[in-house]
Design brief:
Elements lengths: L2 H13 L9 H17 L1 H4 L11 E3 L5 E3 H7 L2 E5 L6 H19 L3 E6 L3 H11 L5 E3 L4 H5 L3 E3 L2 H9 L4 H5 L5 E3 L2 E5 L5 E6 L13 H11 L1
Parallel strand pairs: 3-4, 4-5
Antiparallel strand pairs: 1-2, 3-8, 6-7, 8-9
Helix pairs in contact: 1-5
InterPro entries: AhpC/TSA, Peroxiredoxin_BCP/PrxQ, Thioredoxin-like_sf, Thioredoxin_domain
EC number: 1.11.1.24
Catalytic activity: a hydroperoxide + [thioredoxin]-dithiol = an alcohol + [thioredoxin]-disulfide + H2O
């Protein structure tokens, strides 16, 4: 089953109010409203995309080690997934799919990192629960996400909903900005050029990790 098929199945159960979430439809309507408004904002259209030069970054992994995009690119192509956090089931399903494809990424000589605003403690939890062999880097205040054009401020009505659902982002992220990154995937060539990008304001829509492989193969062919 493809990643999107899994996401669609989860979404159908979630929006039907099935256990364990048992959410009323008013919650679903609020989430739909927020997604529609984010789409209409045009933010995705102005984010970094294929052909652009990727911003450089240095971020810490959950163990406090500094990870530099420059150092990773010195070894080979770099794959980045911007990850909202451990509280997001759609995001976790994507991480699991990326993990399944990790051997193919490694075979192509690529490094894979996820970037999230959550605290290192929560990133360790994400790594453990999703059984990941790649790091989740801490992007405090979504500064790197902002450099990629992905950071957005949650509207007041959505903040209120999250509070009512006990989804305490200030606790998850260690700051009270109530900002998130739009989910996005990038493949970056060693010269810093973005050769694959996928940005979607709808967090329930994700590309299958296999879709990143042609970009990696093209890099390999160009370097042959």
């Amino acid at each position: 089953m493809s990643l999107q098929a899994k996401l669609d199945a989860f979404k159908a159960d979630f929006e039907a109010g099935k256990p364990p979430y048992n959410v009323p439809y008013s919650v679903i309507e609020t989430m739909h409203r927020a997604t529609a408004e984010l789409k209409a904002s045009g933010l995705a259209d102005t984010a970094k995309k294929t052909g652009d030069i990727a911003p450089e970054f240095s971020l810490k992994d959950p163990d406090g080690n500094l990870v530099s995009s420059k150092e990773l690119l010195a070894k080979g192509p770099l794959i980045i997934s911007f990850y909202r956090g451990v509280w997001c089931p759609y995001c976790n399903m994507e991480l699991q799919a990326l993990q399944e494809t990790l051997p193919a990424f490694n075979q192509a000589g690529a490094s894979l990192v996820a970037i999230s605003p959550q605290t290192p403690v929560n990133s360790r939890k994400s790594v453990r629960q999703n059984k990941l062999d790649f790091p989740i880097l801490s992007d405090t205040l979504n500064d790197v996400a902002n450099a990629f054009g992905l950071r957005f401020a949650m509207p007041d009505y959505l903040i209120e909903l999250y509070k009512n659902l006990k989804n305490d982002l200030p606790n998850f992220n260690g700051d009270d900005s109530w900002t998130l990154p739009m989910p996005a995937r990038y493949v970056i060539a060693q010269d810093g050029r973005i050769v694959y990008s996928e940005i979607n304001p709808d967090y329930t829509q994700r590309p299958d990790p296999q879709e990143l492989l042609p970009a990696l193969q093209a890099i390999g062919a160009a370097n042959a």
